[in-house]
Fold these 2 entries.
Entry 1:
Amino acid sequence: MNNVIQKNLSYKKYVIDSKLRYFKPHASKIEKTFAEEISTTLSNDPKFIAPKFFYDKKGSELFEKICGLPEYYPTMTEIQILKTVCGELNDYLDESFRLVELGSGASVKTRLILDAFFSLQKTTEYFPIDISEILTESSEMLLRDYDRLSITGIIDTYEGGLKFLRNYDDRKNLIVFLGSSFGNFSPSDGEDFLKTVNSTMKSGDLLLIGLDLVKDKQILESAYDDSIGVTAQFNLNVLSRINDELDADFDLSNFSHYSVYNDEHRRIEMYLKSLVRQSVIISKSNIRLDLEKDELIHTEYSHKYSLEQIRILLEGTGFRINRTWVDDQKYFSLTLASKF
Ligand SMILES: C[S@@+](CC[C@H](N)C(=O)[O-])C[C@H]1O[C@@H](n2cnc3c(N)ncnc32)[C@H](O)[C@@H]1O
């Protein structure tokens, strides 16, 4: 294992104690990637900011607030389904598994899965992968509550974390990807991503993926445009982050949150709308952004699926479905799959 770690020279290693360590790309690399990506995607037509950039400290806190909103059914529904799943998960696991989580965030739902692991193992290894620094706080909170746990966190993109995991060792992994975060990918990027997950998995590894289901348009639209405006703050916060980290001069009062359900593509589309004709300088990205009044900057897709689509998607990317669980209202799904 040490050999593998030494090969990952692009990561800085932080050993907190015998139960907790993190790997994180060097700060200069993170800033350079952010500046370059923003320069490219805001020069595109249509203009775009990738949703992974929502999650600075403030963005992660706002996302946690969204999870507690009455309109935001995905979190409560997925937790409800997970309670059933975790009662049955041991039929598929054995004592040799490690828990890997993509986009672990606050690791709240993780606790239900960890309980299933503890009923099988004396000690459990958890491998959270998240681009946000929230990973450090969540890991420390988990370790305060569970003494049979050890954590290796990768503070990086999903792809970076999966590359790290590949060839890490021979241990079997249950990879979980919750919150329908997969729905943020465009259909073609999503397929490529599932193929990457699949190629990272060894025979015997499992994937548990939470995906949001197609439902009434009104329920969907209010989940992404709540009555007290937390989702709006979350969306606008990415501009504050660009101001702070890339030395830009976005005036947030010149933008508004706009989200809509696109029936044809079965997805919520989230945008920042420019309320006036304006120019913005992003110094570290070396660009001047010219925006027309009412021009939209695309910030997020959130695709919704039918169960048949999920089956086709997973089977088409090299998986065999072991089991799919849904709630009574058929709002959300969790699917357990293995590599063909
Ligand atoms: C929608 S939240 C879901 C959090 C949690 N899994 C849940 O279900 O409540 C997405 C999480 O994934 C992380 N994330 C988003 N895009 C990412 C990316 N491209 N690579 C790694 N982490 C990412 C965010 O920081 C955030 O914690």
Note: Confidence is low (pLDDT under 50) at residues 1-6.
Entry 2:
Amino acid sequence: MLENKIFEDTKTAFALKSDSELDRAYFLFKMISVQPLVRVGTAVTRFALNAKLPVEKLIRATVFDHFCGGVSVEDCKDTIQKMHTKNVHSVLDFSVEGEEEESLFDAALEKVSNVIDFSEDKKAMPFSVFKPSGFGRFEIFQKVGARKELSTSEEKEWQRIRERFDRVCAQAEAAGIYLLVDAEESWMQDAADRLVEEMMEKYNKERAVVSNTIQCYRWDRLDYVKVLHQDAIKKNYKLGLKIVRGAYMEKERKRADELNYDSPICRDKFETDAHFNAVMSYIFDHLEDIWMFIGSHNEESNYLAIELMRQKEIANNDPRVWFGQLYGMSDHISFNMAAEGYNVAKYLPFGPVKNVMPYLMRRAEENTSVAGQTNRELTLLKKERKRRDD
Ligand SMILES: Cc1cc2nc3c(=O)[nH]c(=O)nc-3n(C[C@H](O)[C@H](O)[C@H](O)COP(=O)(O)OP(=O)(O)OC[C@H]3O[C@@H](n4cnc5c(N)ncnc54)[C@H](O)[C@@H]3O)c2cc1C
């Protein structure tokens, strides 16, 4: 492991944060670390927003501004530029979730398309991203994945989903940027996987224009990566893979339990960590065919990646390897890696406050359940505050 623990440098990590922003972040993580508060807070917020109570301002001044770039693409401009001065890139993420209407899928398509337009010629934004369920009904993905017969109107719906995927991929290719496709619940993911595979075969001839996401908390994913790798060799395309641990663990386990099937999730955190590192190592062994975006806040996995790159003499800024964290989290990893010349991009969510609430609640719950991470943020913020005061 590395002698030089680069993530401990809080001066570099928080160079863009004013003293008052540091204090706000500290206050926020302190609140998030109290589990009952998060549980009550998310329920009350949901109720208040549905009842149209005037809580938006409060949300904006706290969680929203910490974890999001703004309501619109325009709002995010300042943040994008500021981060880019430190060699940290932005992945604008239209984080509206759970919509189920055709008109809203078309609206989401337009948003992603606008982001691609906005990204063209901007070195600060080499990626765009979307969620499969943002482009079509969850249930259709589920039915297609389970190979159930579709009605005539469902066939048309599926065709429209395919067209939406195709349109943004073609646009990303023409704009010279990369497109990441997020992964979601396992019971809809098979259909999304097939669709992204189709797109990769079509668009990834010279470079990985499109990348699929591998959730390493699923114990079957290393085998899936190996199958994909063979497919890419056979059909002569570059494989693009974003690797993450996975964000839907509780939901996955609950459903498996209720419907009485084997959970697709690794037995424990240790197994997930080992699986994540195994997938990452496999890809580092095959970089001639696979491009990788490592989406993780885990220090050990990031240090392992650094170490593997050093051992294999892969340049820090090799265009096939990117590192990503979420805006508002793990700046000590993002900014320190960027300072060392690695390719780093932060997901920068944007959208109307009410619509990004599911995203924000996931962040709050995730930071609560991964207590270690919240404590780590608190320790780092405190350390930096002390360094500035001394
Ligand atoms: C840039 C970026 C993009 C992302 N895109 C996606 C995406 O498309 N789809 C998606 O699902 N998630 C996505 N995520 C979220 C990601 O999957 C994780 O939820 C989050 O990053 C926490 O994992 P970690 O590696 O950062 O850190 P860690 O704190 O080391 O890991 C926490 C994760 O470990 C796993 N875990 C925790 N406890 C257990 C247990 N008892 N048994 C088994 N596994 C356990 C869970 O996956 C949990 O989220 C993304 C994250 C980033 C940074």
Note: The chain has 16 helices and eight strands.
